[in-house]
Design brief:
The complex is a heterodimer of chains A (about 110) and B (about 110). Chain A has about 110 residues and is an all-beta fold. Chain A has a single domain, classed as Sandwich (Immunoglobulin-like), CATH 2.60.40.10. Helix content of chain A is about 0%, strand content about 60%. Chain A is built from no helices and eleven strands. Chain A is globular, with a radius of gyration of 13 Å. Chain B has about 110 residues and is an all-beta fold. Chain B has one domain: Immunoglobulins (Immunoglobulin-like), CATH 2.60.40. Chain B has no helices and eleven strands. In chain B, the strands form two sheets. In chain B, strands 2, 4, 5, 9, 10 and 11 form a six-stranded mixed β-sheet that branches. A five-stranded antiparallel β-sheet of chain B has the order 1-3-8-7-6, with no helix packed on it. In chain B, strand 7 and strand 8 form a beta hairpin. The termini of chain B are far apart. The chains are: A mainly beta (about 110), B mainly beta (about 110).
């Protein structure tokens, strides 16, 4: 979607390796989120940010960390990837109202 | 525990049919409900519903919220193959963190020619 980009779009990594996914926005929105989407579970919140250096955990935060050093960038790190973290990861932004805008997603496969 | 339940989980119809997708919620301090359409990539916003009984309409799609029944429906009339997608609903509670969107698991709609 215009204004929010995720990278990489696809990644295959080995179990035990660290992985960082990037979300970049050009909308200057305050709130940024990381979700994962899995069959049978829908979208589940991993972490979110409500400002630079202000982050909090979501529903499924174990095994993930995040950082937001600039308004426009929100990084999701898997410290030591596991097969259970194979998923599609979506970043989303909002300005405190309800108009969430989602990125196009990152498909991560952990082998 | 807050939850959102969508039904059916999947649905197959033919072009021209009318479909109704359901979303029920049990959310503390409910504020509003969102509907999204997800094709191959990112969910895209369809409707936001805050007031009960007021229909939102966009072309062949319409949606309404019933706060008494804690539910919402999404109607699609004269379906087309391009309507094939996963439809997600999400509840937004008052207060708490801004990360509190509570998603249902989605309804997968397949429209056959």
């Amino acid at each position: 979607d215009a204004g929010i980009t995720q990278s990489p779009r696809h990644k295959v990594t080995e179990t035990g390796t660290p992985v960082t996914l990037r979300c970049h926005q050009t909308e200057n929105h305050r709130y940024m989120y990381w979700y994962r989407q899995d069959p049978g579970h829908g979208l589940r919140l991993i972490h979110y940010s409500y400002g630079v250096k202000d982050t909090d955990k979501g529903e499924v935060s174990d095994g993930y960390s995040v950082s937001r050093s600039k308004t426009e960038d929100f990084l999701l790190t898997l410290e030591s990837a596991t097969s259970s973290q194979t998923s599609v990861y979506f970043c989303a932004i909002s300005e405190g109202s309800y108009g969430y805008t989602f990125g196009s997603g990152t498909r991560l496969t952990v082998v | 525990e807050d939850k959102v339940v969508q039904s059916p989980l999947s649905l197959v119809v033919h072009e021209g049919d009318t479909v109704t997708l359901n979303c029920s919620y049990e959310v503390t301090n409910f504020r509003s409900l969102l509907w999204y359409k997800q094709e191959k990539k990112a969910p895209t916003f369809l409707f936001m519903l805050t007031s009960s009984g007021i229909e939102k309409k966009s072309g062949r799609l319409s949606s309404i919220l019933d706060k008494k029944e804690l539910s919402s429906i999404l109607n699609i009339t004269a379906t087309q193959t391009g309507d094939s997608a996963i439809y997600l609903c999400a509840a937004v509670p008052y207060g708490g963190s801004q990360g509190n969107l509570i998603f249902g698991k989605g309804t997968k709609l397949s429209v056959k020619p």
